[in-house]
Amino acid sequence: xSLPTRFRTLRPWLEQRFARPVHRLAxxxxxxxxxxxxxxxxxxxxxxxxxxxxTGALKSGLDLASQLELxxxxxxxxxxxxxxxxxxxQSYSNTYVSPQRLDEVLAVVEARAGDPLVxxxxxxxxxxxxxxxxxxxxxxxxTLPVWVELGLECADDRVLLAINRLHTTAEFEDAASRxxxxxxxxxxxxxxxxxxxxxxxxxxxxxxxARSAVExxxxxxxxxxxxxxxxxxxxxxxxxxxxxxxxxxxxxxxxERLDAQQVLHRLTGDAPADELLAPCWARDKNxxxxxxxxxxxxxxxxxxxxxxxxxxxxxx
Length: 316
Prior knowledge:
The chain has 10 helices and 9 strands. The chain is of the alpha/beta class.
């Protein structure tokens, strides 16, 4: 399949920026979430499983330094040893920790700075990013490029409340602005097909992302995983998921409303077969990519075609 020409994807951007193939290495720092420990709520977001969309490696007894070394050794065998690596702190909210713990976590990658590490990516929530954490990430950025991945999920506060997300769109926009003001690259996470959001919600979320000028976007369809609140709703017939064709249509709407320069880090989501309840088509990433390209060609459209935002000039 030919590379897409109507939307910006991650691999070409990485190869242009780092002049080599680049892979992510997911790391589990044992972080938590204010929706699970009672600070804001209990049980987590309705779509989120007990591992916080991460590996759970720390709970298995593998400390962070060992995770990093084993992962680097595994990736060293790829691309004839030329691969660069992004150390990705994925599970839960990684700035929802004490200053001492964040220092400990970041010190692990700082000690390994240099080839093959090309960047560090830190996933967190927009309401768990205090100024002191941003300052610490700024210091790390003097050694390695830093990406901050912020979960928005959708730009409708009513939906965010209903799915137990418990932050607001305004909090996301503020956090994204602060990340970019700190000189760090910002990547936003969103989900299409959340109950109550709809096709207009997908369009509205893209417009918010374009306005916020985040450099990267991760988008995927709603997945129903076994160890989530949504699993019971789906089994009872009270929750539906998008079929393949509908997702592609909504995704095309979404991509049209992004800024043309924003990089799509992800177009679809997947999960292990023993964890995923629905949709059954979720693991075919190439099919989604190809169908999106076809749909945009059919519309004579492309990324940014319907964007009303005009972000300030920035280096991507």
